[in-house]
User: What shape does this take?
Amino acid sequence: MRTEPLLVVDDVVVQFGGVTAVNHASFVAESGRVTGLIGPNGAGKTTCFNVISGLQKPTRGKVRFNGRNVSHTPVHRRAKRGMGRTFQRLEAFGSLTVRDNVRVAHDIQAGLLGLARPARGDVDGLLERVGITAYADERADSIPTGVARLLELARCLAGDPQLLLLDEPSSGQDETETEAFGELLRDLASEGRGILMVEHDMALVMSVCDEIHVLDFGEVIATGAPDEVRTDPRVQQAYLGYADDGGAHAAEPDDTRTDLQPVEATATIPAVGR
Amino acid sequence: MSSFIAYTLFGLFSGAAYAIAASGLVLTYSTTRVFNIAHGALGMLLSFVFWDFSVKQGMPTPLALALVLLVVAPAIGWFIARFIARGLGDAQASVSLVVTVALLVLCIGAAQQIYPAEARTILPFFAGTTFSLGEATITAHQVITILASVLVAVGLFVLLTRTRVGTAMRASVDNPELLRLFGGKPDQVAALAWMVGVSLAGLGGILLVSTVGLDYYALTLLVINAYAAAMLGRLKSLPWTFVGAMGLGLLSSYVAGYVQVDGFLSQVKNVVPALFLFVVVVALPQAQLRIGQVKGIVSAPLPSLPRTMGWSAGLLLFVALLAGALSEANLLLVGTAATFAIVMLSLVLLTGYGGHVSLAQLTFAGVGALTYAKLDQPNLGGLLLSALVAAGVGALVALPVLRLTGLYLALATLAFASIMDKMVFQADFAFGFNGLLPASRLSLLGHTVDSTGGYVFLMAVFLVLTAWAVLLLRRGVVGRLLIATRDSTAACGTLGLDVRWFRVVLFALSAAIAGMAGALFAGLRQNIGAGDFIYFQSLLLLLFAAVFGVTSVTGAVLGGVAMMALPQLQSSYPSVGGLLFVVVAVGAILLAREPNGLAVFMFRAGRWAERRIAPTIRANLPTLPGGSDPDDLFPDTGEAADPVDEPEVDQPEGVPAHAH
Assistant: This one.
């Protein structure tokens, strides 16, 4: 019998008033793999993340995590069961230092008993791992966005989660930083963690993801390995407003969505190791 | 049967008046995201103005009504939108709560100043005119009220759905930035919402005043009725607000008519709105943790250990000197100041560190005092038990609103305070109506502290110990968690913290501190009554906390002294009693956005003095051979490079300046 994937999103619908943000979305994320969740702005990616982490109640549908239905589990208990997430709009604790941000995560992990004896997790080790040691003593509202995103990642890792939900983790980083970040992601996945990542940097997504789900208007329009997704006509339609057939552009410029870098079919994209 | 119809008619009449007031509340809140706690107080103030125009100056009623509702009320609304509430919707919930509480106190102060206490009556419209409806009669005033509510409903419907500005109002609810982007003017929309809102508060107040009476405090609590009705529509839906208001009116009327009980429950009819509110709040679905909120980014100042010790010793020494020198009456005042200071410390924990607002802190003190007096165990055990009972009551208040957000918690505490005022504290099993309960002085390990001087010193010791406890919490794991939950509740949730229970525990802890203060106060006064803990005092307490700084122990001590001094000043200068409320309220409005309050200016003054003296000391120090002037090394960093400068967190704190 095949074991169930770490995370299963099953037929989730989210409606805000009359607007359907997520429309019967179903997808999975597996342990030890990096899964990408991509799509144009407003496709429902962050809403999906909110549903998975419990911040948003779905209108219908189920979320299964680690073989259990967590659809009705409160946010904090999902976290205790091994879900960690970062935020697109930063949610770092602005009045605390970077180091204290991670300490808080350790304190929460330690729970009530931990109040008596302060948690002695390897805070500096985590900062080192994500590469922001230099900022340890600065207030979290004074650091650059890219660093704050890494801080949110370090804060998650304090809980040693099985599943990492990363919402646009690389925005605010330059090219070199993104490259290092990609390695970090592969490294985290190799420890057996599942990573589900919303990301707009296509180069990063294509190089680091094992599997990609593409959302458009709240629906999953394609799923597959980077190479398959990249050439999928529906994906190209969603991103570029036309189906790319070998570089012949025939679309009206008005239809082009400019909120994303177009997928460059001609670019050499590194093969992803299995 | 005829009585049923009569009760129904009366219920519909009060429901109609509530509906008018509540729809104003909803309109303002949904458009500007500011919940106006002063809604009832504005209605009260406008009722006084209406009395002025119609009775005192003898204007014809329609003219007086038109002037109040179409000129005075919109002018006040515009002023509030322009100068008081601007940008408040984007601020932290605690800031907008403090500002609107200040507005409430300002209205009461203004009313007392302009219209000093005397007997005033406003007759119902067309007094004496009645219509018979079968066996029951209905007054012309009641008919007018019900018609007015229908007109308001239709008017609001037309405004919101058929006019451009109404569309802009609805858009403003969803996204003010987007509205601006599309050429809308959120400021003007907000101003209109406030103008209409205040006008509706006035209309509601004026329609009710002939039944409620022209009183500073009774009409102010109309906000609870309006809020209870509006909660049914989740502060958003106007139709549901009307349903809620009518339901509440009918319920109140039937309870008053049919529930004939003596004793404790006889007061039930007065607390129906507050009880209704609790039921609605409990029935509401769970609120979701919001992300992307504005964050509190002001660090609560923390004193260093030597400073804490130094200032503590200074305070104790000062109180010891006072204890030997002052008269009995003045010592009681010092003890009262210490009581308020300890209650303020409970707010430092809850509001300053935790970001939650309680409008019932003195009610918790009252619970502590009541328990202490009833237990008649004047020792540390009795004191601890009083604090525990207050903590339990605090948790009970926070539990129903566990699933909701900060605004609802604050409003639930206001409803709770009004229930306790009317139903519990004045009941025979508690303090009794206008009654006093005897309480004994505390005894420590068998030694009773009998002298007032000794007792006041003991209270100062408790104040210092509480301050240490609060600072210790702030320095430790709990303090870090408090600030983290304030900065981002959602992130704490996704890291595995059960933020709801954390909030309840925090609330209970804060209530325990207040309860302990109340118990100590009971021992100080030796006679304690319901009048010491009325809800209005809790509002004043919050304002003083905001003025002097709710994030620091210094602010709490200063606030305690001011809270004690205010009624003294008012009885010394009765002619400006109301004006003093206005001054406090204006101070709170001006300082609400500076969470560290006036205390922060004292810290700055201290740092400034240090900087003035420090260079002199440095100049007299022998220069190291070969060492260059540090100012040349860091030409641009200026003070930051000054090695003598104290770090930001190392601020003097613990005792007010007057302790010198």
Notes: Residues 2-239 of chain B form one domain. Chain B has a mean pLDDT of 84. Chain B has two domains: 2-239, 305-598. Residues 81 and 191 of chain B are 5 Å apart (CA to CA).
